Amino acid sequence: MQRVAILGSTGSIGRSSLDVISRFKDRFKVACLSTNSNVGLLARQVKRFRPEAIAIGGGRIGDDKGKWGKLRVYEGNEGLCQMLRDTKVDTVIVGIVGSSALLPILTALDNAKRIALANKEALVMAGDIIMKKAAKNNVKILPVDSEHSAIFQCMAKSDGAEINCIYLTGSGGPFLHTPKNMFKAISPKKAVNHPRWNMGRKISVDSATMMNKGLEVIEAHHLFGVDIDRIKVLIHPEAAMHSMVEFVDGSILAHMGLCDMRMPIQYALTYPSRSISPVKGLNLSELKTIHFYSPDMKKFPCLEIAYGAAKKGKTYPCVLNSSNEVAVEEFLKGHIKFTDIPRIVKKVLGLHKNTRYAKLKDILEADKWAREKTRELIGVVTS
Questions:
Q1: Separation CA 368–CA 361 (nearest Å)
Q2: Rounded to the nearest 5 degrees, what angle is found at the Cα of 83, between the Cα atoms of 81 and 86?
Q3: What is the pLDDT of residue 4?
């Protein structure tokens, strides 16, 4: 019986994870759950899955703490980390979006045997630190992002030396066919309307700007040990192929399936075995056409910006991610335009001075600096 912690249980990844676990009651026990602020849904999850502990990240619980009875309740990001230290867990599913997952992931690496990772930002910020710690502690990191799960399955036991390149596919987002001269008028409501996936607001905007693919390139670099130049992005509007791996002998393996996150979540939980899934198989006879396009980096400059930061390395990817998080947040609030996101992130990266080393202290300082500098530039834009 695997004891599972789900970080971000009220988000789309967390809800899908609980759906998967509910179908394997003899194999998985929910040990703890966390949410940022959706306490109502968390309470319903607690009633159904009976965890031993919960963490509420946003705000303070205050007088409401007593309503949870004997359940251990933790507050804030540090409380979330403490919950992982206090609770016996085998597998940690990380469904938290953004940089706030970094410290919980580092904590989980000291307290779990397996991490099912659906957060890319932490690897972008501190991939070297995370992967080295995972290797040292013999913790298996299994990707839950559909693209990286696909790559993981295609690579099987192959090492980086057998890989010619990795193809990360993307649908192109909601504005693939929108003329660039209309981008300034794009509203937050339109940007979060992804054509294929039902995701949170932040990741939906990242998909719309294609920053998400840039972050995924960096994530793949750390997960699979493949050089940035050998990780390529392909636009694939049908979203039937979730990614591909080309080997040195010229053969290409592709992973296909429906757009349903329960598949990669279940595989991460049951690996190395496979089990029957509630997700229907892809009906290939209905798939009339398959298209692949090279991404237009002039139309979607975030992807080119991300590649540039990735090649510079050290603290540049952290600054890329942190600046983008703030810019997307301000766009969703209506404070800046859609086209301001890449312009501001590029400006912040241009002002950054890389560190000689990228230890955790350097990463956290770069994160703080990038957020402050981004807010400063946004203040100039909106004043």
A1: 11
A2: 115
A3: 98
Question: What is the overall mean pLDDT for the chain?
Answer: 93
74-80, Cβ contacts within 8 angstroms, sequence gap of 24 or more: 77/103, 77/104, 78/103, 79/55, 80/7, 80/34, 80/55, 80/104
3-state secondary structure (DSSP) of residue 92: strand
Whole-number pLDDT of residue 374:
98
| 291 phi/psi in degrees, rounded to 5 | -120, 145
Q: pTM (2 decimals)?
A: 0.94
Task: Pull the structure tokens for residue 265.
Answer: 């979540």
For 10-27, give one letter per residue: b (16+ CB within 10 A) or e: bbbbbbbbbebbeeeeee
Domain ranges of the chain: 2-143, 146-258+279-299, 313-383
> For 287-343, what is each residue's pLDDT tens digit?
889 999 999 999 999 999 999 999 999 999 999 999 999 999 999 999 999 999 999
Return the SS3 of 284.
helix
Distances (CA, A) of 368 to 52, 323, 362: 34, 10, 10
CATH number belonging to domain 313-383: 1.10.1740.10
Instruction: Give counts: helices (H), strands (E), the chain.
Output: 14, 11
Say which amino acid occupies 158. Answer: S
**Residue matched to tokens 């609980």:** 18
In a 3-state reduction of DSSP, which class is residue 301?
A: helix
The fold of 2-143 is: Rossmann fold (3.40.50)
pLDDT tens readout for residues 200-209: 789 999 999 9
Q: Distances from the Cα of 345 to the Cαs of 10, 60, 353, in angstroms?
A: 29, 32, 14
